[in-house]
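Predict structure. Chain length: 137.
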Amino acid sequence: VYKLNDKIAKLFVRPRGWHLPEAHILVDGEPAAGCLVDFGLYFFHNQAQFRSTQGGGFGPFFYLPKMEHSREAKIWNCAFERAEKMAGVERGSIRATVLIETLPAAFEMEEILYELREHSAGLNCGRWDYIFSYVKT
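Prediction complete.
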């Protein structure tokens, strides 16, 4: 018999990195940012059920990869605030953990946390990508 425990892990969605386009959706004739398409579609279709069944009134939760600068975190924060406002949920409901994979991001960790503010669930180091970035740099 397979049965889940009463307390289960929370699902974190990992959108694509900023560098990956969505070829099937165009904005002003150019491919849309894949990460925003991933975020927007998941949030729109799943946020209400996630908040009621998994998030305890919060969420959904995201795992943000390939970030190198706090300006990227600022854009994410704006996207989160806009989505929360459009969905009619309280500010700070969406939470994100940032994957630190590059040397530039390691030097901007405090700034990244600041830009995400109440949307931050913390940082995580992707050690193999980080080591490669360090060696490459």
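Summary: The beta strands are 12-13, 21-27, 30-33, 61-64, 95-100, 120-125.
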